[in-house]
Amino acid sequence: MRRGLCVAAALALAVGLTGTACSSSDSGNKSSSSTSATAAPVATDQLPGLVPTPANSQGTKGPDSIADNGIHLQFTVNGAPSDVMAAYKAALKDKGWAVTTIVTSGGGGGGGATYTGTNGSAYGVFDGGGFNTSTYINVCAWPTKPAEPNCVRGD
What we know:
Layout: H1 2-21, H2 32-38, H3 47-50, E1 57-66, E2 70-78, H4 81-94, E3 98-107, E4 110-119, E5 122-131, E6 134-142
Antiparallel strand pairs: 1-2, 2-6, 3-4, 4-5, 5-6
């Protein structure tokens, strides 16, 4: 009987600690993973509003529809590729994207970067590069992350 009482007390203590650790008393300290897991899918017509136009943009194509209810946009930008892509990453963050750098390259006047990101439930692939003062950015965005988030470069 004494052993059962100890087990019950230990269980009650564990439940009490778990409840305290998971309580919402510190509502200002929420993780982004819980937010994105419960975020409702973004409507396809809202996707263009989530994608910033790069500074010094000289031209835009799209948005064009792609698989999985996504959109594709292309930007032609006047500026060095490394600088343009660094600025575009900052612009994405300003629009609410949580950005991950996949690859960057530079040197000899050329370069570029590829980023992925989430904005609520929306998922995006941002790929850009070029040479000297010409940079080309391809953007694909989907309401939720597709099984194959391949962003094909446009013409």
